[in-house]
């Protein structure tokens, strides 16, 4: 059975999504490369065409749910994958992917332009593509109107001044919710994070299932929102988004980031073990580190590029925050404790 036949047998989802593969046999090269990714992935049509013109390959994008669902499907098809490259595994899920033998090593020459601190796998089974910090965001106008100083630190959140002002996402159902839980664990350690959350509960923290409800419905600082909570868990890129999507555009960002609270999420791409088009997969990883793709990342997905040479759009330069010392935890520690931490959090906060 040829490699292409194996791919066809094992990837019914891909066939349904694309209406068939450009299959080859007898040593012919594939004419396409398949990127498996989460539903939040976006790339501009111009950048997609640039890759296709540069390589002569057709880029096909298979979106398979949120990041957790995408990884679960990749684990179930490890060695007989749905595509050639997987993008969207972040540092909160990285150890699960590496332990599941989803990827095959590839060290891109383009990594010379990437901060070594973002390269978390020394075997180069995955390559960092972007980073985005989950942070507390505050509604500047609300605090100005009330004559109250906004919080400057995680330590401030249990202050009675901020009672019933904070909305967070459930870490069992939300990626930013999990990142914020991890931020508190990184900050306060095993001996302190549970007490911190008990104090937040006593201070009236509101928990919702996902980012959409927390930010667009409950948070008072979102454009068009009637929410009454002026502190929310969101992203370091949320202030420039508030400027870009408001009409007319304000000259200053109406929201601000509490830099002390930020937890860094890094998203990775990797060549899938058993990829039908391994050479094309490597070219795609290289391209995802190139300036055209990296400079497309901020306004396509509202995250930050990892290539030091990539220029940020003016809105990011003026309004976004890149924390100098974001909170983080080793991926192995996250994998070993994630389920227990979420269970303990649930017992403290929502039961």
Please explain how this structure is put together.
This protein is of the alpha/beta class and 351 residues long. The protein folds into two domains: 3-131 and 265-314, Periplasmic binding protein-like II (D-Maltodextrin-Binding Protein, domain 2, 3-Layer(aba) Sandwich), CATH 3.40.190; 133-264 and 323-349, 3-Layer(aba) Sandwich (D-Maltodextrin-Binding Protein, domain 2), CATH 3.40.190. Helices cover 39% and strands 18% of the residues. It starts with a helix and ends with a helix. Residues 1-26 have low confidence and may be disordered.
Domain module tally:
2
User: What is the element string, with H for helices and E for strands?
Assistant: HHEHEHEHEHEHHEHEHEHHEHH
Structural shape = globular
The assigned CATH architecture of the largest domain is 3-Layer(aba) Sandwich
Strand content: 15-25%
Find the CATH superfamily of the largest domain: Periplasmic binding protein-like II
CATH topology of the largest domain: D-Maltodextrin-Binding Protein, domain 2
Helix-strand category: alpha/beta
Task: Classify the helix fraction into a percent range.
Answer: 25-40%
Task: Tell me the distance between the termini.
Answer: 54 Å
What top-tier CATH class of the largest domain fits best?
A: Alpha Beta
Main pleated-sheet profile: 9 strands, mixed
**Rg to the nearest angstrom?**
21 Å
């Amino acid at each position: 059975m040829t490699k292409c036949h194996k791919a066809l047998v094992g990837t019914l989802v891909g066939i349904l999504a694309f209406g068939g593969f450009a299959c080859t046999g007898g040593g012919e090269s594939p004419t396409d490369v398949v990127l498996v990714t989460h539903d939040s992935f976006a790339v501009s049509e111009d950048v997609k065409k640039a890759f296709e013109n540069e390589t002569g390959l057709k880029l096909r994008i298979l979106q398979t749910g949120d990041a957790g669902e995408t990884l679960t499907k990749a684990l179930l098809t490890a060695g007989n994958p749905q595509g050639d490259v997987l993008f969207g595994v972040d540092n909160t899920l990285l150890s699960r992917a590496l332990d599941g033998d989803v990827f095959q090593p590839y060290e891109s020459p383009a990594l010379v332009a990437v901060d070594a601190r973002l390269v978390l796998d020394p075997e180069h089974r995955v390559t960092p593509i972007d980073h985005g910090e989950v942070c507390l965001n505050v509604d500047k106008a609300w605090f100005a109107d009330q004559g109250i100083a906004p919080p400057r630190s995680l330590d401030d959140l249990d202050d009675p001044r901020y009672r019933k002002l904070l909305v967070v996402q459930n870490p069992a159902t939300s990626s930013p919710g999990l990142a914020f839980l991890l931020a508190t664990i990184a900050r306060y350690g095993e001996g302190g994070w549970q007490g911190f959350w008990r104090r937040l509960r006593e201070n009236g923290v509101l928990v919702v299932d996902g980012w959409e409800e927390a930010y667009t419905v409950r948070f008072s600082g979102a454009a068009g929102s009637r929410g009454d909570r002026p502190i929310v868990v969101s992203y370091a890129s949320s202030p420039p988004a508030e400027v870009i999507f408001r009409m007319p555009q304000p000259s200053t960002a109406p929201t601000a980031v509490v830099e002390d609270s930020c937890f860094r999420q890094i998203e990775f791409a990797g060549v899938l073990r058993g990829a039908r088009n391994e050479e094309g997969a490597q070219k795609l990883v290289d391209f995802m580190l190139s300036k055209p793709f990296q400079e497309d990342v901020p306004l396509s997905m509202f995250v930050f590029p990892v290539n030091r040479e990539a220029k940020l759009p003016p809105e990011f330069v003026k309004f976004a925050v890149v924390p100098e010392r974001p909170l983080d935890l080793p991926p192995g520690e996250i994998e070993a404790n994630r389920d227990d931490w979420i269970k303990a959090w649930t017992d403290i906060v929502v039961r």
